[in-house]
Amino acid sequence: MMAVQGRPRAVLFLLAHAVVLQAITFAMRPTLSYAVLDVGGSQALLGVVVAAFAVPALILALPAGHVIDRTGERASLLAGAGALVVAALLAIFGGGSVGVLLLATMFLGVGHLLSVIGEQAIVANTTSRGQFDSKFGYFTFASALGQTIGPLLLALPGDTVQTPPVALIFVVCGALGVVLLGISFLVRSSERSAAAGERARMLPAAATLLRTPGLIRALVAGSIVLASVDLFLAYLPALGHGRGIAAAAVSAMLVARSLLSMFSRLFLGRMVKLLGRRRLMVWTILVSAAALLLFALPLPLAVLLALSAVYGFAIGTCQPITMSWIAELATPGTRGLAMSLRLASNRLGQTVLPSLLGTLAAAAGAAGVFVATGVMLAGGAWSGAAVGQAQSGEGPDDVPARP
């Protein structure tokens, strides 16, 4: 198990924080999609909702990481939890307006970003080199547990079979936000080095990281992978709504994805040692693409559940790989910035790609979005080939990737 400042209690607080954060996020995001549809929003508007989650956070990512490197992670965790509480309150009291729902989505995105950067910086700053794959695997296991719990709220009985209890879910998320705020007070920042005041300025440090061979392609792959998860979350309710699939069944598919993502991360370190980061990244992206392409077919519910599980295992495997590699590249005092650089690239993908595919939904529906996302992932496998290997060495391809 990973050590955070060498104390089991600190580990539990951090993992609990990750679980609650992701439970809130993965309950609210699909529920916001249902809420937008309920007030008359179109399927094309769901792409804007996905982008609204990413745009404010995209602006804040690098500054937040830089501040964390100088002041510690706890303040970021507290600010993130506060933003999530505000998001829930906006959704509860302004859920009848598309504009307010978009604002709630923005606060949700900011709260999620500030919280995730703080969590990842703690892991990166308290892990020994050579252990990043396994430690980030454990951390992302906790995140996936939260991603599994959150969608379970969609299975609660609603006004119709196809619609979950939107208002109730927002209230539960608001209560969980208060819990997250309490946990944030209990999480301690990692130790600051003696050279804290001499850390490199934000933009030069970021430019240095970006000059690493293969890094930009690896960041592109990571952003495509995460955007596909966002699109899956946003458009699976629309697919179910259009095909008359019950909200409980949609919840089961979301839970299946999360469970298998969680399961895959327990073995991430072993899989990297067996196959190497690069090979594992490419193959899991390709499997994810194939699973999403099949969603466009009118398949039985049992098959859709199985495809959700396959997609979850594959996408859950490749998500933490760029995280561990970038943490390994960064030097002490820049790891918060390095994590925020990765998250900024992810948010850029979450902003541009869903907006583009949201226009496709108007013409081809949710099934067309799944096809386009699958094709996009298949192209992302080429970018994934740029990810570097672990420092301990994983085999004959353990050489720096060329951009």
TrEMBL record:
Record Gene3D superfamilies: MFS general substrate transporter like domains
Ribosomal protein among keywords: no
Subcellular location(s) per record: Cell membrane
Record membrane topology: Multi-pass membrane protein
Major location category of this protein: membrane
GO MF term set: transmembrane transporter activity
Cell membrane found in the keyword field: no
Residues covered by the Major facilitator superfamily (MFS) profile domain: 1-391
Signal peptide residue numbers: none
One annotated Gene Ontology cellular component of this protein: plasma membrane
Matching SUPFAM superfamilies: MFS general substrate transporter
Keywords per UniProt: Membrane, Transmembrane, Transmembrane helix
Pfam families linked: MFS_1, Sugar_tr
InterPro entries: MFS, MFS_dom, MFS_sugar_transport-like, MFS_trans_sf, Sugar_transport-like
Ranges that cross the membrane: 43-63, 75-94, 100-124, 136-154, 166-187, 218-238, 244-268, 280-303, 309-331, 352-378
UniProt xrefs under PANTHER family: INTEGRAL MEMBRANE TRANSPORT PROTEIN, INTEGRAL MEMBRANE TRANSPORT PROTEIN-RELATED
Protein name per the record: MFS transporter
Organism (species): Arthrobacter wenxiniae
